[in-house]
Amino acid sequence: MGRLALxxxxxxxxxxxxxxxxxxxxxxxxxxxxxxxxxxxEGDLDRFLGVYADDPATSYVGGDAMLRGxxxxxxxxxxxxxxxxxxxxxxxxxxxxxxxxxxxxALIIVRxxxxxxxxxxxxxxxxxxFADGPDGWRIVADHSS
Length: 145
Prior knowledge:
It is built from four helices and six strands; from the N terminus they run αααββαββββ. With about 140 residues, it is of the alpha+beta class. A six-stranded mixed sheet has the order 2-1-6-5-4-3, covered by helices on one side. The longest helix has 18 residues, at about 25-40. It starts with a helix and ends with a strand.
């Protein structure tokens, strides 16, 4: 089933404004984030980072850093989030907003939850731009706070 047909089928079956009414694009973007979270939770940094576009222009903003490219993002995560010791915690996402930014770009705003054994969870908000390409929906810009 094509993307347009699937989107129309969802729109016909679910009432407008329904919490369950999601476009095919939103479902695909959320699935990409969920797969990334599974990678995090399993301690698989490569799988976690697989959601980022492998492009030197891909950007990540967090704290006081602005990074470009998956290698720089990998360096940030491999150094300080417990991947080397298996203490990276459990990551999950809650969608707060989703909107298309044209035919092949989307903005998703999520609240991330990062739980650790014996410690208070970390939470924050991320604004993430995805692009649909040959490898599916991938992050091209991530601003996490």
